[in-house]
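TASK: fixed-backbone design
INPUT:
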């Protein structure tokens, strides 16, 4: 198989009532590294497919209750399972049965007696086809996103970037034609207007260039341990002139001692954009506050927010934020202009850190933008990789005893959940772990291992419920 295709990521559901067939198929596929789940009837297979969403289903045709053809028909009629490829396993070799299998939605069939190499070849082939289909879907979505980005770019160039030049052109024309008749105060006011217009153009270009670098993947992501209070204070100082000009109180309530694991340029850009946005939509005499606190009960994330008591937003407007394909731009309280691009950039930068960003707002009461960042002291999430247990049977001595000692209720509850899902491999591993807790549980684990290896899930359920009732 290609390096890009990992079979260990795929779960296969085997629906067959024959324990001998299950042993042959499961033993071989497990050796190849597949994750497996079983069901001993069509009804149980339907239930488990809906919950587990396997990558592929191996389905026996001749079963008691509903047969394989009817099981497949119901799988394909359910939106939750209709995309899962189904390979029939059948002793029927007539053309009519094969055609019926394809008609009800099967993608392939394997003729009994089962040949292990054939099973593997067909399973790998259809998993590759499924993987390629998924990649095509992702590529289609990426193309749509690229088209939306292109449309946004042309919209900014054609409209938003053109807008600020109108007052620039008007003011410079006025100065050129009427300089001699203007008073010093009028010239000063025109100069201030020119400065505001030039500043707006600069900010638009800066946002456009930053967004362009993000889209092209040319912006380096270099996270380090950063002092959040220090950055918040610096931004308050940087935007102090803007807040003073609008008579808005700008303050940081971020407490000392909060260190985040973030890219400094991106973090500065996020907080600066959100604070600028808050100042834009807050009236004279208002307040903008930067704050931070632990995110929920997590010791790994911090929640940062920028709150204002400005004009607020309608719910319909909130739904348009963070969407590149939606053109949403509103004038600020001092007629400031924008493109809506800043929030899209903030979202992409927050996501680079593994966090999320959202907004809370009430019309006429104000708006709060919140986002999460990893704390510097946190263990990186990608280091918390689950390591599967090795076979532990050689580490414990399984022996028969007359007196049954029941394992703890917690372990029984876990085993019941595994039995409901049909995960016999996990039941075997759990049984061995219970045996390691106390030698007195070994008779119980011995019996459980025997039943799991024979795929006797009904007997396992009865055994577990019997023990649970006696606790």
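OUTPUT:
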């Amino acid at each position: 198989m290609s390096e890009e295709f990992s079979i260990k990521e795929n779960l296969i559901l085997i629906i067959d009532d024959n324990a001998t067939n299950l042993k042959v198929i499961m033993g071989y596929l497990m050796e190849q590294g597949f994750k497996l789940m079983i069901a001993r009837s069509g009804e149980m297979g339907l239930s488990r497919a809906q919950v587990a969403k396997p990558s592929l289903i191996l389905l026996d045709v001749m079963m008691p209750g509903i047969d394989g053809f009817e099981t497949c028909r119901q799988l394909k009629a359910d939106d939750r399972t209709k995309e899962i490829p189904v390979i029939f396993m059948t002793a029927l070799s007539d053309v009519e049965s094969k055609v019926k299998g394809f008609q009800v939605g099967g993608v392939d069939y394997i003729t009994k007696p089962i040949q292990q190499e054939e099973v593997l070849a067909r399973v790998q082939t259809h998993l590759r086809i499924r993987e390629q289909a998924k990649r095509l879907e992702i590529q289609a979505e990426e193309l749509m996103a690229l088209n939306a980005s292109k449309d946004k770019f042309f919209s900014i160039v054609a409209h938003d970037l053109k807008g600020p030049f109108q007052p620039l052109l008007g003011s410079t024309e006025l100065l050129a034609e009427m300089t001699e008749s203007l008073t010093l105060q009028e010239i000063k006011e025109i100069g201030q207007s020119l400065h505001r217009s030039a500043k707006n153009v600069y900010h638009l270009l800066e946002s456009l260039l930053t967004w362009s670098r993000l889209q092209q993947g040319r912006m380096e992501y270099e996270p380090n341990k950063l002092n959040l209070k220090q950055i918040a204070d610096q931004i308050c100082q940087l935007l102090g002139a803007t807040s003073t000009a609008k008579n808005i109180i700008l303050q940081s309530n971020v407490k000392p001692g909060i260190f985040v694991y973030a890219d400094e340029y991106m973090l500065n850009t996020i907080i600066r954009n959100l604070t600028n946005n808050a100042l834009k939509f807050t009236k004279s005499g208002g307040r903008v506050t930067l704050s931070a606190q632990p995110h929920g009960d997590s010791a790994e994330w911090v929640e940062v927010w920028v709150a204002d008591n400005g004009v607020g937003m309608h719910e319909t407007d909130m739904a348009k934020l963070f969407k590149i394909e939606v053109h949403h731009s509103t004038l600020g309280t001092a007629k400031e202009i924008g493109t809506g691009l800043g929030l899209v950039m903030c979202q992409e930068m927050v996501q680079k850190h593994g966090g999320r960003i959202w907004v809370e707002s009430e019309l006429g009461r104000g708006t709060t933008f919140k986002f999460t960042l990893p704390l510097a002291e946190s263990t990186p999430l990608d280091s918390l990789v689950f390591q599967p247990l090795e076979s532990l049977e050689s580490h414990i001595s399984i022996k028969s005893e007359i007196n049954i000692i029941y394992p703890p209720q917690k372990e029984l509850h876990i085993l019941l959940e595994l039995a409901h899902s049909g995960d016999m491999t996990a039941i075997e591993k759990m049984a061995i772990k219970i045996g390691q807790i106390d030698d007195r549980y070994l008779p119980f684990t011995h019996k459980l291992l025997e039943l799991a290896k024979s795929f006797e899930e009904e007997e396992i359920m009865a055994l577990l419920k019997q023990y649970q009732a006696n606790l």
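COMMENT: The radius of gyration is 32 Å.
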